[in-house]
Write a structure and sequence with these properties.
Order of helices and strands: HHHHHH
Shape: rod-shaped
Largest sheet: none
Length: 179
């Protein structure tokens, strides 16, 4: 009986030891999914710098890997998502350019090319809009100056007319009344 218990204990012992082993380290692909998820949550809650820091840290920790390239793509996507200035768009362009410059197979190459093309179109439209706004401001300033001059001319004419009326009143006032 003792032998049977001892054999049973020995048979179960490896299972107990295996249960206490640490789980295997997540793969870089699994880590990327986790980092992208956390970055997207951070970005959605307004923590843009934290989102960018997470992805940049992943790229630094896994240089020259397919996952690092994908992290660069997600940096560009999140940068575009919150782009409010030309500087944000320029940073997204740099991330997309780095992603597209890598000759290795990447998962989002067509999307990155389309986004890069759209960024160029947005910049062109923005420049055209800026030019149109500048022209409109110049036209408004010229119109304002013309109106200011016209108002000054009318004021000068009014002063002359009032002076003429004053002279006429004096002349009429100095005439004898009965004639």
């Amino acid at each position: 009986m003792r032998r049977l218990l001892l054999l049973g204990a020995l048979a179960l012992a490896p299972g107990c030891v295996a249960g206490h082993q640490r789980p295997p380290e997540p793969t870089s692909a699994e880590q990327l999914v986790d980092v992208v998820t956390r970055a997207r949550i951070a970005a959605a809650s307004g923590q843009r710098d934290e989102a960018d820091r997470l992805l940049a840290g992943f790229v630094e920790a896994h240089p020259a890997t397919a996952e690092a390239r994908e992290a660069a793509y997600w940096r560009a996507i999140l940068r575009l998502e919150w782009a409010t200035s030309r500087a944000d768009r320029d940073e997204a362009k740099r991330n997309l350019d780095a992603y597209l410059a890598d000759t290795a197979m990447t998962a989002h190459t067509p999307e990155a090319r389309i986004l890069r093309h759209l960024l160029n179109a947005v910049d062109s439209a923005s420049q055209a809009s800026d030019s149109a706004n500048a022209a409109a401001r110049q036209a408004a300033a010229a119109r304002e100056e013309a109106l200011r001059k016209e108002i000054q001319t009318l004021k000068d004419e009014l002063v002359k007319t009032n002076e003429e009326l004053t002279r006429i009143k004096r002349r009429l006032g100095s005439r004898p009344q009965g004639r």
